[in-house]
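Predict the 3D structure for this chain.
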Amino acid sequence: MEAACSRFNSGVQTVLTEKLYWRDMYLHEFDGTVVSIEGNRVILDQTAFYPRGGGLVSDTGKLGGAMVTEVIKENEDVIHLVDHPELLKVGVVVHGSIDWDKRYEVMKMHTTAHILCAIVNRETGALITGNQINPGESRIDFNLESFDRERISDYTKAANDVVVRGLEVKSYFMNREEALRMPGLVKLANALPPSVDVLRIVQIGDVDTQADGGVHVGNTREIGEIVIDKAENKGKNNRRLYFSLKRTAASSQPTSS
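Done. Predicted structure below.
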């Protein structure tokens, strides 16, 4: 879960790559102009590819005839690592397509992680010490002394109750000072959002509001059923939860762009 920012200088945004995934997280095809190619590293003027960060795996897919094997972020540049950079050319518009099935699973997992974190934080005051969001199975670490089966079962039920409520998940940008006055905005242990003027906020109904730069579903009902696979002791005051998702009759995938 990554705190997101936009950098401004004298009122002019200096971000090189426009992040289309912030505008429309269901966008899976787009066109962009190649700005830079260095080895197998390709930068576009705009992209729907989400880079690795905040515990989330990156998107993969295609740019023209090249396969995008991973996406990373350096400063505010989104860099696509491709297998055949010779198929691309600076200044030329290229068509991009992401692996939508993978992206959608990550979106559901990430929203689930926010819900679980909000519930555990509300009940115990615990903060997040680590996370890894993958399709298939994900994990969250909390600074807790102990977990017991009954409490884990209670957290899971509460999280699934949130899912079936069908809460809207929305994102917006706020002035940093205003955002940091919001209670519960930061749930990461030993971490604050970047020292920038504007923060991206993700809000899940009345359940959770956090500074976050990642991709999410638009409605909690899309998640399905949350299943806690196991809990582990990872050292003093560090407890890890592994979770997965099960499709239900109520869960549905919107038509992607």
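Confidence is low (pLDDT under 50) at residues 2-15.
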